[in-house]
Design brief:
Shape: globular
CATH topology of the largest domain: Rossmann fold
Number of domains: 2
CATH class of the largest domain: Alpha Beta
CATH superfamily of the largest domain: NAD(P)-binding Rossmann-like Domain
Structural class: alpha/beta
Distance between the termini: 18 Å
Strand content: 15-25%
């Protein structure tokens, strides 16, 4: 199979969709790998390492899109890349189409196939490719929040861990999944006063058990959310449903009632965000202020730690990439239900139910 990896062009996105070790394994299995020059530098991998692994280095992205049967990316195609989308192309990347109608329409128009990392789901509900990125984003959310709470960054000047004789900062986490769990680990480690809100009682019981009473747990309802939001110093949005647009759980009125200089980090921004006042920002301009509350809505948070993120992503994507390359798309999808759930667009139709519902489209069964 002809497999292409273009350089990421999203603002301050330094990850790359393939590491040299994966390129070597694919090459040894008889596949041809094309890497755009400089694609791996931000993650710590230079062109020479890819050449040694057997990959072909291409000077610009256009030949990669033109020649490849499967294009691997980290983040969704931007408008500059829409012209490359075409019939017969298999795109394998993070897509988050529920929050990006323009891209959805472009993919439908192209007639190609789009498989989303974030909706690959196992029988037991695990998200094997999204999970490592969620772990990283959850941990970064507290790190980023603590940074923006500093007075020189227009924050309230609160140290999350406090000091003897002074109360610690309060961290509220909406959502107790992978992002929420990892955010809580970091916040508890800093010594913050942490509250997790989640809708499932079994999950709350699990979180209470593993943290041994070091976090407060509350059921998700508007009263509890309002209470913790208006009392916290750092609010972390960690709500997620595969392929679906995120429900707005924190209202504009709740944000207006928050402390001046408090910080919101909405990790669910890829799917629209769970805070009504959040909009997508970038690493170049990560924050904005509404009602004296700092909002952080960077959609590619793991891109700020690309070496760690790229290795974690490569570990998760490699089995699926190899399976598609070895069996071809149709056989790979037929033999792997988790991969089948990852297919969002096929032959001009939406094939994932949550994506279809978010877009107001009919969900079509996969056709082979």
């Amino acid at each position: 199979m002809q497999i292409g990896v273009p350089k990421e062009i999203k603002d301050n996105e330094y990850r790359v969709a393939m590491i040299p070790a994966v390129a070597r394994a694919l090459k040894e299995s008889g596949h041809h790998i094309m890497i755009e020059t400089g694609a791996g530098i931000g993650s710590g991998f230079n062109d020479e390492e890819y050449i040694e692994a057997g990959a072909e280095i291409i000077e610009e992205s256009t030949p990669i899109w033109d020649r490849a049967e499967m294009v691997l990316k980290v983040k969704e195609p931007l408008k500059e890349e829409y012209r490359h989308l075409k019939d017969g192309l298999l795109l394998f990347t993070f897509l988050h189409l529920a929050g990006n109608r323009r891209l959805l329409d472009e993919l439908l128009r192209s007639g190609g196939t789009a498989v989303a990392y974030e909706t690959i789901e196992t029988e037991d509900g695990q998200l094997p490719i999204l999970t490592p990125m969620s772990e990283i984003a959850g941990r970064l959310s507290v790190q980023v929040g603590a940074h923006h709470l500093m007075k020189q960054n227009n924050g309230a000047g609160v140290l999350l861990g406090g000091v003897p004789g002074v109360e610690p900062g309060r961290v509220a986490i909406i959502g107790g999944g992978v992002v929420g769990l990892n955010a809580a680990k970091m916040a508890v480690g800093l010594g913050a006063d942490v509250t997790i809100i989640n809708r499932g009682h079994d999950r709350l019981r699990y979180l209470d058990d593993i943290f041994r009473g070091r976090v407060h747990t509350l059921h998700s309802n508007s009263l509890n959310i309002e209470h913790v939001v208006t009392d916290c110093d750092l609010l972390i949005g960690a709500v997620h449903m595969p392929g679906a647009k995120t429900q707005k759980l924190v209202t504009r009125e709740m944000v207006a009632g928050m402390k001046k200089g408090s910080v919101i980090v909405d990790v669910s921004i890829d799917q629209g965000g769970c805070v009504e006042t959040i909009v997508q920002t970038s690493h170049s301009k990560p924050t904005y202020d509404i009602d004296g509350v700092i909002h952080y809505g960077v959609a590619n948070m793991p891109g700020s730690v690309p070496h760690t993120s790229t290795l974690a992503l490569a570990n998760a994507t490699f089995p699926y990439i190899m399976q598609i390359a070895e069996l071809g798309f149709n056989k790979a999808v037929k033999s792997t239900p988790s991969l089948e759930r990852g297919v969002n667009i096929r032959m001009g139709q939406v094939t994932h139910p949550n994506v279809a519902e978010s877009a107001g489209k009919e969900c079509a069964p996969l056709r082979f």
